[in-house]
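User: Quick sanity check before I run a bigger batch. Here is a single chain. Can you write out its predicted 3D structure?
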Amino acid sequence: MQTEEQIKEMVKQKYSEIALQDKEQNMSSCCGSGGCSTEVYNIMSDSYEQLEGYHPEADLGLGCGLPTQFAHIRKGDTVIDLGSGAGNDCFVARAETGPEGKVIGVDFTEKMIERARLNAEVRGFNNVEFRQGDIENMPVSDNVADVIVSNCVLNLVPNKKAVFAEIFRTMKPGGHFSISDVVLVGDLPEKLQSAAEMYAGCVSGAIQKDEYLELIIASGFENMTIQKQKPIILPDDILSTLLSLEEITSFKESGTGIFSVTVYAEKPGTKEVKIKAEEKACCGTDCCS
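Assistant: Done. Predicted structure follows.
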């Protein structure tokens, strides 16, 4: 069994490679882990094209949701993006917070930081900065962020409890987060769990949905809600590289599910967060009820 440090090193190496790939190559893969499906163009990510502040050059196609769309960012807010990649969510957040706000992207991979800084520099985004660091121990002071966002990143981190503790520490009292991530309902077959490509591809590192939500509450957050939920269907040509035909049939009949969820929660405090319950909740057929 791999140690946490070995998993981190594997993820760092894989995402260093991904930083050099273009969006089309990443989106035709298992969340950037390498070309692996001829049945679908994109397994997980949603389109950012309708969002203000979207810059295609900063979108590597690695997400599993649109957390910034649901983040209720206000003018002048300080926003932190965990696992900021080439800067996609940071630039969308900047459009919401305005020039009077500040956006901080934190990423584990040096090459991602280099690419994001170049993307910000050529656009003159002086209020967006990128810091290299581990989101289990963020290079950010206490009580800094009004809003924290993240897109398909926490599932890659071995110690998710530590990440939620860091989110709590760096968030201002009354602040909130909107995080898109991959979770499970039921247990994946062992061959899927142990496959390095699937881990770097955002599936095998996921934990049970109930456990994920319990971690959030145990970390001290309140007013938690699922803003959006959608199933992730792995095509047969991916499954067939890891499982036999009998195992694939058993997996499909087991009721096991892989889902993308976007979760909102608040840090207790005196700051007034004027978001009505119906605005936080999701709507539509592709999310929670």
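The longest strand covers residues 171-185.

User: Great, the batch can go ahead then.
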